[in-house]
Amino acid sequence: MKIPQSLISSLQNIKGFNENAFVDTHENEASPIAVRINPFKKTDTFNHAESVIWSEYGKYLPDNYLATFDPLFHAGAYCFQEASSMYLAQILKSSVDLSQDLNVLDLCAGTGANSTLLASLLTPDSLLVSNDVLKVRANVLAENLTKWGTMNTIVTNNDPRDFTRLSGFFDVLLIDAPCSGSGLFRKDPNTIREWSVGNVTQHALRQKSIITDAWGSLKQGGVMIYSTSSYSKAENEDIVDWIEKQFGAQHLVASNEDKLGNEVISEGSYRFYPDQVKGEGFFITAFQKRNSEKEVFIRSGKPIKNNNRRTEREIFRNWVKNIDDHTWFGKNDDFFLINPLHEHIVQLIQLNFNLRKVGVSMGKLSSKDLIPEHELAMSLFLSEKINKVELSQQEAIKYLKREEFALEQAVKGWSLMTFEGFGLGWAKILPNRINNYYPKEQRILGKES
Ligand SMILES: C[S@@+](CC[C@H](N)C(=O)[O-])C[C@H]1O[C@@H](n2cnc3c(N)ncnc32)[C@H](O)[C@@H]1O
Questions:
Q1: Domain's final residue, options 386, 414, 429
Q2: CATH number of the structural domain spanning residue 435
Q3: ∠ CA 309-310-314 to the nearest 5 degrees?
Q4: What value of ipTM does the predicted structure carry?
């Protein structure tokens, strides 16, 4: 692996950079594979795996670990996340009171590794808006958050500037910015070919533009967390200086006492070097907003009127745990379960954003019963009264491939297929066959080698 000389030269005076160790690690050591366990679907499968020292639920796995044929992965019991970026949990814990109900925006959420981490830490009455500007990513983001199972999440597919419509609304704004990607050279060698000084400059401009667009959505006293997977000062410390000057923000300066491992503190921000930590290159830091911001008006109080509520409630009661604690709304024939505290903000977001997911999609009503959606099967809110069929590993893989399989003594009707107790999806058991309702677009393709 040949690291660009111009990158190496530009890093000479940066805190923590050690050229020989850096080059040696890139040439001789593989990128570590890490996963983070879902605290709401706690599996003990990884109990003996090495822990990521700065993450309560982070574990390292062997290089050859193949999640595709692990039903627990499809059940949302864990997700992959680059180990260094799990440090986000530490930054949150030290800069925000996570026992409070918070409105959180993950602006550049990608496929959702940070969003599932946020969803794991927030209170049930908090609201997480996960956004990505790219449609394909926003769709995968919605799938991954569906697997995680929480209700207090909205997925949008919008440009950062659209968030000016939610002025002063968020307590926490996470910008894991698109960057030149030098921190991921070992993980994705394509980033080496694309790397250039010009590319760093371009990304720094884009980072400033994203921050400028989103800054107004943060409330006074709110916290913005900024991170990149780049080593370049222009995308990191220089952006920190710029944020302080441009917005008068308070940099929440890290000190050596806050350190949990071999991460480096450079001008009050954290830097991760792969020769010093078991993870990839990463930069993360936090700010507090000092200036006041006009807050978007969100109606509160009265629930939104719905004349069919009583009938719907009795149907949903058979499918959803503690239905009286939740509310729902219908769009066309589809019904979505949401937290009653989020009813008005959901309505506002529906009107102003491209929504990809909201709450838990329960399904469609048809002749007084529900045709359940996959999201309900994956959610943490499914009623315990629902019929379940526990599958063996082999049966689970067949189910996830949408192949035919037979079951002895299964109760007729809708059943949740489970593996080690975790929901995988729906099947409808008929007298002479099983209809597999696992989503076609998510089915496992290919063969186990
Ligand atoms: C570093 S990745 C995010 C990774 C993600 N946070 C995770 O945990 O997996 C940056 C994301 O920013 C998005 N992005 C690219 N250009 C953007 C722009 N101009 N505004 C907002 N987001 C952008 C990309 O689609 C990409 O998913």
A1: 386
A2: 3.10.450.720
A3: 115
A4: 0.97
Residues 144 and 99 in one domain: yes
Residue 293 lies in a domain: no
- 134 ligand 1 Cβ < 6 A: yes
- Distance (Å, rounded) from C-alpha 170 to C-alpha 352? 16
Tens-of-pLDDT digits for all 449 residues of the chain?
899 999 999 999 999 999 999 999 999 999 999 999 999 999 999 999 999 999 999 999 998 899 999 999 999 999 999 999 999 999 999 999 999 999 999 999 999 999 999 999 999 999 999 999 999 999 999 999 999 999 999 999 999 999 999 999 999 999 999 999 999 999 998 899 999 999 999 999 999 999 999 999 999 999 999 999 999 999 999 999 999 999 999 999 999 888 999 999 999 999 999 999 999 999 999 999 999 988 898 877 666 666 668 899 999 999 999 999 999 999 988 999 999 999 999 999 999 999 999 999 999 998 789 999 999 999 999 999 999 999 999 999 999 999 988 888 778 999 999 999 999 999 999 988 999 999 999 999 987 76
- Give me the domain span that covers residue 9: 5-288
With the most atoms of ligand 1 within 8 angstroms of its CB, the residue from 92, 115, 132 to mutate is 132
H-helix or E-strand spanning residue 207: helix 197-215
Find how far residue 422's CA is from the centre of its chain. 20
Q: What are the CA-CA distances from residue 110 to residues 133, 145, 157, 303, 409 (Å)? A: 9, 12, 10, 33, 43
- Please tell me whether residues 270 and 145 are part of one structural domain: yes
Q: Are 131 and 97 part of one and the same domain?
A: yes
- For position 191, which CATH number holds? 3.40.50.150
Tell me, using a 6 A CB cutoff, whether residue 133 lines ligand 1. Answer: yes
Is the domain of 308 the same as that of 276?
Answer: no
Identify the residue whose C-alpha is closest to ligand 1 atom 22.
108
Clarify whether residues 87 and 142 are in a common domain. yes
Compute, in angstroms, the gap from residue 214 CA to the centroid of ligand 1.
Answer: 13
Nearest-angstrom CA–CA distance, 218 and 240: 17
Instruction: Report whether residue 84 contacts ligand 1, using a CB cutoff of 6 Å.
Output: no
